[in-house]
Amino acid sequence: MSNPSEAAQVIVSIIPIVGIAMGGVVAFFYLLWSYKAKRLLIERGLYQPKSFDAGAFSLLAGLILGMVGVVLLAVFIALGGSSYSLLGGAIPLAVGAALLAFYALRHKSGA
């Protein structure tokens, strides 16, 4: 099996850099245009702020992160046994559990 040429290695290493830069440009212009649109709505008195539902967000994010953590943990246990790679599944599982606990505590307190 032959090694890839140096030009191919350079091209393959540039692709993620260009993708991240393009994503940054898109995010910048989205934020800029969103800011300008909100500013114009405020000037004309038409702006109505959207409320953020922290309970629904924590429930959704907790469920997603918890399930991803369980699956990753199971795969890493099956592939490598007990090693530091288990943190790749344990960390999202712990964050998901914390978000679900936040939702449960907030829901219980009636907030």
Task: Write down the Rg.
Answer: 22 Å
Mean pLDDT: 90
Number of helices, where a helix is a run of at least 4 consecutive DSSP H or I residues: 3
The largest sheet, given as strand count, sense and whether it forms a barrel, is: none
β content, as a range?
under 5%
Shape: flat
Count of individual beta strands:
0
Structural class: mainly alpha
Distance between the termini: 63 Å
Low-confidence blocks of residues: none
**Elements, N to C (H/E):** HHH
What is the percent of helical residues?
over 70%
Q: How many structural domains does the protein architecture include?
A: 2
Characteristics:
0% strand, 3 helices, 111 residues, single chain, mainly alpha
How would you sum up this structure, described in words?
With 111 residues, this protein is mostly helical. It has helices at 6-44, 54-80, 87-109.
Concise overview:
The protein has three helices and no strands.
How do the helices and strands line up, and which of them pair or pack?
Layout: H1 6-44, H2 54-80, H3 87-109
